[in-house]
Structure formats: structure tokens, C-alpha cells
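Hey everyone, long-time lurker, first post.

I ran two proteins through the pipeline my lab uses and got sequence/structure pairs for each. Pasting them in order. The first:
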Amino acid sequence: MISQEKYIELVETILNRSMDNSSQKEAIMAPVDESQYIVAGPGSGKTTVLVLKILKYYFVDDISFDDVIVTTFTKKAARELKNRTILWAKMISEALDYDLNYDFNRMVIGTLDSIAEDIVCDGESIEVIDNFTSSALMMQTLLLDNKNSNKKLKQFLKKLKNSVGGVNTTEMNNQIRSIRERIYYDIVDYDKLKENSNNEYILFDIIDAYNMTLKERGILDYPMLETRLYDMLCDCKVSRLNHFKVLLIDEYQDTNYLQEQIYFKMAGYVLENNGNITVVGDDDQSLYRFRGATIDLFTEYLKRINDYMGITPKSIFLKKNYRSTVNIINFVNEFIHLDKKYESSRSINKPLIEPDSNSPNGLPVMGMFRNNIEELTTDLSNLIYDLKIGKDTSRRVGSKIYDLKQKDNPSIAILTNSPKEISAYNRHRLPFYVRESITGRSEDIAVFNPRGQNIEATDIVSLICGLILVSIDSDATIENNLDNIPPHTKKILKDWRKKVENYLSCKEKEVPLYEDDIVLSDLLDDIEVECSDLIKESSENSIYHDIIMETINQTNNAISDEGRLSANQIFWHILVPIASGAVNVDDDMFDVSIDENINIMSIHQAKGLEFDIVIVDVGCDIYKNDASSAFKRFPKNGGKTHSIEKYLGDYSKLSLSNENKGLDNAFNDLIRRYFVAYTRAKSLLILVGLNSMRYGYKGDFQDNIKIPNVATGWSRDKICHWVNLDNLIHI
């Protein structure tokens, strides 16, 4: 053990981390028995605080790493937290000439799901499947017996969708998964829900069939895993938690009700050992309500834990931003306070974000708006080229000249509501045009957008699945006799076959033919050889490959007997679900270098990341006052998340004193989304869109009608606070 003074000295001299920030210091140096509620604004160094807090427990308070539980939202964040803890622990130990002698593999730092898996599956033969495999299995359940064509089910899901248009099979699958997850996450009385159902009875047939498949195979998905852990905690069957003294929870604003109850149960163990529970989060950065997160669990945390545990954690606000320039911070502070009603959804007495005293004023926030998408893409691509490898990085605005290049080879991200390059209506979108323009201009600039295409249509997935298809059904007998599958799925299967037949013809190769029961691992070994060259072509191909192979392997483990499958099983359980669009890119797959690519991603994907230059799409698809675009600019209703919440609400134990209306929640979600987007920027923030967003549009009998948009300064009372976006420097 060392003194607090010595620890602070080592942090400043060995780790080169200042302890001048009083709020950070208060959070780090708290006594072991002090529980805390830390509201950490963007760029406020919360990861640093968490790591230094863990190390303080070890070096000052003599608490073993084994006695600390740390949870965070993603696997990537958990890895970063653990790696930094290990590195800094070794640096301090060396400075003290102290033999650390600790196996860091024993540290309990991970997502709640990874920690739950370790506890629940300890000594038991249980497999936990990822989200993409869960989606594929649900799709298989939906398609069997033509359930996806049930009219009453379609009507029910369309009503829940609460927007224009119908529901295709992929949307049906996603909605059913969302409903099922919320049943678990909101701790819904499932039997009562079923009992009071009307025409949606087939929904429960699908959910029950899916659950039975997992039960029969000894498989858990994440909602079932968390529920199993909760049940064990309620039954006091987790003796391995008896010795823990500290529970640290990161990203608490994205916690759901089931997770809250798990954390409160786990807190009982640490409090009994005179330890603490500390939660860290930011209500302004809550993005996952559609996955079951309930923001009120964070904003009302002090009351809820006092009611449940009888403790009053200390409130700490981390308000100093070390990431962005002063101009960006001022812009963000202005944006978050435009909508007065939004204030009621925030943490009480929340302060403004403050820049670090060493932060430069930097460049002003800029806007690039053009008459059409082609003109915008040309100018935007020219700018990106110049910023990456060109020389002309200055832009004249009136009498002033701004040099937009603040460093060589800056990291650049384009953030949008959806990174899809082609819309559902086969219309090319901004990400498509940017990729085409940039890659066509220079081979030295790589565009990274793994979510830009549907996985089933990518080259690498087409090759892998097409080779499986041809190997098990060379004459297309099974494929041609498949019933009850959507036309899109049939088309994808035919596309796979055609691409592979062309590939084999060009390469003058043949695939091994498999008959009878198939050992899928053997087939995949044969296929892997053919995919190696394509994988090497891009980081995106590597991600697609890893996802689809993981999906196939997990699904195989879930449904095979002794590793063997029939050709029909492979079709129905693997190929058809993938072809139907049930598999998506998982956020944790984005563990790539961000500096060398032009990163195109959704705002949700960008959470937790930072870039030198951030370009935010605030309305490149919005060229008229179209109802179909309303939810991503200025909601007219609560949306499908609210519909699901309302549908399940009467059957949940979740009760909130400050429950907002659906429409207000939709507005709040949108404000938070753009707040996250704008706060990713370090040196330059650019808003891009069409001039219709600035000046209105010319409709049929209506001239110059404004298009309300939260991202461009409209509050929900239909007041435009940034008239023509005059607060931006337009380039």
C-alpha cells in the first residue's frame, strides 16, 4: 500500500495524467465505501477516471483486482478499459519496484453479458449465441410453415410500426425480435400478455417455437442469459460474488430494467463487504431506447437506488471536455438547450460542457449545403481528398480564408442516420456517392463502410454461401422446390448460385459435392481456401467473412446432431435466413484503425469514438416535406419503439414516476442522437445537406415551405432557432 499523496504523484509523473480537475480527482480518490453517481459529459475522460479509480483501490486501499467488477456497454470498450488498466498498473509497479505478480486474465472487466455468461455457464454445458445468430434462427422460425404470410400478424406488426408503408419479412423478423427482447428486458408477465392477446396469437407461436429450439439445444441468447443470471441472484445462488467489494458500471444511461435489477442485486454483495456501487453515464448520450434502454433509470437513479438499497450515492459531474475545440463546444451547448422541453428529461442541475483551459478556439462549425446530392457529393469529395492527401485545404468565405487542415492525415468520419448506400427503393444515397467519388479519384484513400451494403449481397458472403449452395445442391433441386420463402430471398439464392458458377468457370475449378448427412465443418474447410484472396482485398470483406462464418458455425452448433446436417437443414436453418437479410453487422466488429479510412457509419456506431473531422449528414435525403422522412428529422408520432413499450407496459413491473409521452420520447431520442454526432469532432465539425433544409422547398402549390429538422435547430414547438442555419460558416 502507498499513500494517497504518493499515488497522485505517480499518476502525474509516471502516467503523465494531471489531477488538477477537481471533479475527476473527487471521483478517483473516493473512499472504498463511497458509492457514486457520475454524470460524465462527452470527452470528459471517463475511461481515465475509471482506470485510475481501479488502480487506486489496488495501490492505496489494498483491494485486489479480483474484488472489483467492471461492466461496460461493448466488448471493444471493455478491451480498451482492461488493456489500459494492465498497462498503467505495470507502469506504476515498475516505478515502485514492486512485483505485481498478478494474472490479469482473472480481472472481471467486460460487458454484463460476458460476465453473466461466465457465472451462468460455469461448470455447465451451455452455449450462448450472438445477436446475428439469434436473428438467423428467429428468421428460420418465422419462415417455417409460411408464418411470414399470416395476414393478422402483418396487420399487427404494421400497426406497431406506426409509420407509412407495409412490413417486409426482414422488418417482421426484426420487430418480433424486438418485442421478445423487451418481454425479457422489461420483465413482462408473459403468461398474462398471451392471455390477453387478440389477433396477434401467432406472434407468441413464433416466440415460443424459437424459445423451444434454444431450450432443446441447451442454448441461450443474451436476453435469456441475463434473465438466468437474475433468477440465480434472486435465489441467492451466486456464491462466487461473496468476496467482491466494488461494482463499477459504465454507460449506465443505456441500462434496461432487467439489467438495473441485476445490478441492484449485485450491489447487495459489495455493500455487505463495506464496498460501493458506482455508476457512470450521460443521459444526453443515451441512444439505445430501441434496444430496451430506459433513460429514466439513469436520471432517477439516486431515488431508485435509495428506495431499493437505502443508500445515497454522491453526485459528481464531469463537465470539462478534453476532446473538442472551444467553437465546437459552444455550438454543442447551444444545440442541447434549443428545445426547452428537453430539459425535463435530463439529469437535475446538469452543468454546461466546459472546454479545457488549453483548448484552442479552433475553426468555426461549418455547413455545406447544395441544391442536389450530386453537386454536394462533388464538393464534399473534393474537400475530403484535399484534407487527406491534397494541398488546397483553404476555403474562402466572404473576406475570410479558412485553412481546414489542422494536421496531416486527419481521421475523418461521415455520420448519418443510416450508412446504407442504396435505399430500400433502390435510390442511391450519400454514402454511395461518396464511395464512388473518392475511390474513383484516388486509390490512396480507403472508404470504410461495412454497413453500407446488405450482408447477403456482398461479394465475400455471396461466395461463401454460394459455394455451400452449389456443394449441397448442385442441380438446384432443393432450391427450386423451396416453398414459403419471400421473392427477395429466392432472388438472393439465385444470385449466389450464378456468381459462384461464374467464379468456378473463370477459375476452371470444381467444388466437392456433398450428399446425405453433411459435416459442415469439413465443407467450410474446403470453402475457406477459395475465399482467402477476397478477404485480403479490404477490411470490410474481413468483417463480412467473420460475421457470416460465426453465424454459420453458431447455427450449426445449435441445430446439428453430432456435427451432421442434412442439405434441407442447411437450407432452412442457415442459407435461407442469411439470404432473407436476418444477419447484420455487430457494432463490436468495428475494431479497426480509424485514422487511415474515410469512415462512413451510423451515429450509433460512432458512439464512444472520436475523429479529427466529423461530417454529419443532417438531411441529404430530405429534399421535400415527405412524411416518410419525418421520424429522422421531426417526428409526427412516437414510432415503433413507443408502440412496443405501450403494448407491453401494462404487463411490466417497470414503473416510472416521470413517464414521458411517446412523441416527446421520439424528439428526445433525436436530440440525443445529434448531440452524440456533433460531440465526436475534435477539430472540425461540418453539417451537410441540401439547400431545401436551409431555405425550404418548392412543392406543388407551395413555395418556400420550411422543412422542420431537429438537427438544424428546430425545437418541437416548431420554432426554428437557426434561421437559414446562419450560425454556420457556409463553404
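...and the second, right after it:
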Amino acid sequence: MTTDYINMLNAGSGLNTKEIIDSLVEAERVPVETLITKKTDEIEVSISSFGTLKQNFSDLETNMSGLDGITGMSISQSGTSVDAEVTDNTLFSEFSSDFEVSQIATEHTMVFDGFASELASVGSGTITFEFGTWSNGTFSVNSDATGGNVTISSGADTLAEVKASINAAGLGVTASILKQSDSNYALVLKSQEGEESAMRISMGTSKTVSQTTTGVLNTTAEVQSVAGFASSDLSSLNGKTLFLHDGTNSLSVDFSSTPSNLAAVVTAITSATGYGDMDFAVVAGTDALTLTYNSSDGNVELAQVSILPSSSLAVTQTTKGVASSTAEVQSVAGFTATDISSLNGKTLFLHDGTNSLNVSFSSTPANLAAVVTAITSATGYSDLNFAVSAGTNALTLTYNSSDGDVELADVGYLSATETVTAVDANLTIDGVPITRTSNIISDLIDGMTLTLNSTTSSAETVSGSFDSDSAYLAFSLFIDEINTIKTSLDKLTDRGGLTTDAGPLAGDPLAGYFKNQLGSILNASIPGFDEEEIYLAYFGFETQQDGSFVVNQDTFTDYFETNPAHFSAFFNSRVSADSALISASMIGDNYTAGVYSFVIDDNGNGSVGDTNLTNTGNIYSSLSGDVSGLFIETQTGADDTTLYVGRSLLDTLSSFTSQILSTSGDIADKVSDLNTSLLDYQDDVVALDERMVSLKERYNEQFGAMEAAIANMKSTETTITNMMEAWKGSMKN
């Protein structure tokens, strides 16, 4: 009990005013504070409940991802050499076949070794890749395969940088670095699989050719600038051969020392025999050679200007040619008859100024005569302007006498070892021979992709069939996951009863929306898989009295065995066409599922429903409308057809859960609002404390004034009493 010292001195009312004031303040504080505490507790429970709900949806998303792609098909294999996967159950039909694999497809693999580290300098220049077929040392270009060049710049020419440049070029060649020992690193190049994907690689140091003026026939000369020849740094030409080509004629200029300046380079070019046949004039520009073409030729070919590799074998001219009289003879030294191991694993390169020839050696030739035989047997040798024979430790090149003083031939070799030869995959299916360029084969059995892992020693059987039991199991697992999230929603949103408490999210509009939306998804049709829309109920989906879901197995089995393709509506989104001449795919999920008509008009323009498609050749696409993300490829003869654009139930639920779980999704927004309200109530508590302090001060002032007034009245009373007592005393006397 609080002591009131004023009243103990009988100076006031006699009341415990401090206790009275505290009681009055508490009477005002408690109801408000109780309400704030109640609201705060409710918010904290809601935040925790939404956290629980978010975790439940996250578990649902994780568990459902394991069901993606289930087709309801059963694949059995008697071995491991061939893997089979159903990729489109709408095309799939039951089968059983015997497979024998005699050869799997391989990539062409070449190894360039002898580098001290990954940071070793390889040298700047241009690496040219061509793709085709090697046969007995002869290369045939695959016209359907596009090669290309990879330019290696000076200062960015380490082994690691060369690897990165090749991979970035997008030529279908994969480069990697192999550490063979602490001091020996190798660059490994792999092509695509298949015999026609073999590589032919040539290397040289090429200058950058940029077109500065486009030629117009009989009006304007075409001008090109060949950069990279700084007057103060021309050492790159020392000991090299500068090669120029105008599309028809070629010219090679040898430099035995570093030219003093760019003008000296121009002089060497313009002084060379054959320069008069070139279609351009060469002058010195700013750190560049400038090539100005004959205006009468209009827009001519870009010039080829390159520096031949330093690894080229030395070419020595032994006899000066005289037109129509004496043939020019050249000697290519460095091939001793007893020691020509340098050719093992290399490609010998020959060029006569116009035509070139590559001859690969997978082993060391027996002698120099064998080298000559390999060259003269190669396809394309007849196009060369010289005959090749074996000299004394040298190849001897004798030119056609009618050409007189011809250009020196370029003869060099590429330092590479072929470790794997490019071959096609060879197999039989039920005794029928099959050849494919890849080990992944998707065009043999409709709706199925085969992967070849190894050759077989005997036939392996692969079979596929619709399996209602496995499909039922997958469907039941899916329904179990749905029941789990539904149970959680029901518990959190339960409004309670006479004997049960309400759930923490009872009456919450967002939780109620989740519950209603889940029900809508499960009860809605699934369009886009057939002319007929598909419902869960068709497969035995039922709701029990307690609100939980079950699958009637008999109903499921009956419907599955009759309509197995409809099962994909649950776990496999797809786009398909009624025509074998049309293939369709979808990117993204901003489309509306359904059945559409694809129409091609007389002008080749395409449309799907109300959406006009963009087309380039035989490719049609849309980036907006109901079929946003659609890509269609047509073959010759393709006509109007029906498109089935189906979004699986699994993907629909995935979109629903993704929105819920997003950092900017419904739950995140809700929890953010609740936290804001929680902070507001915390502010209310602070404001209440401040208001109670002010109230107490006001009560103290009021009660203090009252006590002072009472004390004053008591003092007056005492004075009067004393005066009366004194008066009475005087009267007695």
C-alpha cells in the first residue's frame, strides 16, 4: 500500500491520493493495453500461420516436381546398351523390338599438345574450321555444315584464351584443356557426332579486312583497309610470307627480315611478279594496307590477306621457270627418307596460289615415296599446278611450264593428333539396318527417344506398353499431395464449433481464396489435349464425406485403358498438330490452352485463331495473344491443320504455387501488411505510455490542488477554533 505522507501529518483530506491516482491511470490503461495485446497476438499467430502455409505449398511444389513427365508408359529393357524414353505419349504405341548396336556415333577428336601451361602463348592468327568427311586422307566438305573462322588476337592468345574463343564461336566445336603432366598441356577439340561432322582445321595469321567503301559497277571503286601493320612494329612479317587473294588471282610475298616501314611492305607487294594481275591497287594507309579495287568490277569479293604459319616447311626455288619453255622447280626440304616421323598425326598442307590440298597422316609414312603416293592419290591433287615427286630428302614440285614463273607453293603442316575418328551410329532394329549421325535418336519410333550407350554383343530387347498400375500409382501420389495441402488449409481456416476452436486463419480472405482456387483448379476441365475436354473425375477422382479426395481404382483403370493418351493431361504439357508435316512447340507459359485452327493463306501467311503469326520462310511464331510463345515449323506440302495446345494440371498447379511462393506473391504481400500492422500496434503502445504519463501528471495537479485547499480549510478551522477557545477563556475570567 502506498503511503501518503501529507495525510499522515493531517495536512490534507486524509485520503491516499497517490494510490487513487495510480488506480485511475490503470483503469484507463488496462482496456486499451489489453486490446492492443490481443490484436498483436492475433497478428503474430497469423504471420506464423502464413509461414506454415507457405512451407506447405513449398513442400507441395517440391513433391509435385517429381511427377513431371510421367506418361503412364512402362519401358522394359533386357540390356543397358540402349535406353528408351517416351517423349510424347500421344504418338506412342505399344511395341517390342530387338536392337543390335554395332557402332555408336563418335565425335571427331583432335589433340594439340606440347604447351607448358594453360597460360602458354599459342600465337595470334586465324583458325579455320571446316566440316565434312575424311576418306583415305581426302576431305569432302559437308555442304549442310557451316564452318567458320576463330580469330586469335595478339595479347589474348594463351591456351586458355584460345579454348574460350573456340567455345564462344558457336561452330559446334567443343574445346577443352587436358593436363597431361606438370609441363605438358594439350588443347582437345571435339566436333559434333557423326561421320560428316569430321573437322578440317587450317591455321594462319590473318589480318583484319574491313570494307570502307562498297563498290558500284562502273561508278565507285571498292576500298578495303587491312589493319594491323603499324609502321613501328612490322616484326610479325619477319620470316613469313604475306598472302593476298582478290577472289581470282593470288600473290605471295616473302619477307626474310623485318620491313623498315609500311611503305617497304607496299613496295615489296607492288614489285612482285603477278601484282599486275591483281584486281586492286595497294597503298600505305595509317598503320594499314589500303586496297582500292577496279571500279569496273563493282562490288567485288573481299580480299584475303593473311600471313602464312611459321611452321611451314621451307620452300626453295631451284629452277627459274620460263613460259612455254622450262618448268619451274621447287624443293621442299626437311623430309629425310629415314626420319619423317614429324608427319605422324599431322596434316600436310599444299597450295599453288589458287588451289590447296590437305593430306592427313595417321601414322609415320614408310618413306618419302609413301608421302608422294599419299599426296598424288588425294582427291584434288589434279587441280594443283605442279607435280610432286621424291627428291633427295625433299619433295620436288615441278610446275606446268606453260605457266612460266609461277608463285611459290605454300607447304606446311598442322601439329595435331587425331585420337577419335568421327563415325556414324550403326544398328539394326528387328534386323533392319539403321544409320544415324547421333547416339540420340528420336525419329525411329513415334513418341520415343532412344539413346545408344554402347555396342551390343547380342540382341537386346526393348519394349514399351501402357501400364495402368504404374499410372494409377503416380496419380494416387498426386492426389495424396493435394490432400496434404487441402488438410492444412482446412485446419487453418476452420471456423470452429461448439466443441472446437476456430483456426488461426478463420475468416481470412486470402486463405479462403487459396482454398477456393485449389478447388476450382481440381474441378475445372483440362483443355487442349483432345477435341474432348478432360476432367479428373474421368479417372476416378472422388470427394469423400470428410472433404478429402480419393481415386477409385476401377474407374481409373477402365478409363486409362480406353483413353491412355488422355493421361498426359495431368503431367505433360504439350503442343501437337494433326499433320505430320507440321511440328509445334511453346516457349513460356503466357498462353491459353485449347484447340485451335492453324491456317495458311494463299500468300503463305499463317494464323492461329484470331492471332496472325509472324513467319520467316517455313517458321511461324507468335509473341502475343492466346498462343504467345508458339513456334511452328512446316514442311513442304503442309496445309491447314488443328493445333492442340495443352497445359497439364501439374503445370497449372505449379503456376498457382509459384505465385503464392513468389517474393512478390500473395503470401509475401500479406505478411508484409501484417508486419506493418504489428509495427503500428507497437507504436500505439508507446503512444499509450506517453498518454498515461500525461494523465498521471494531470491527476497529480488536480489532487494536489484539492489537498492544498483542504489543508487551507483545516488551517482556517484551527485558527477559528483557537480563537473561540480563547474567547471562552476570557469570558470565564
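Reply from user beta_strand_b:
Welcome! Quick read of the second one: Residues 574-646 form one domain. The CA atoms of residues 75 and 388 lie 60 Å apart.
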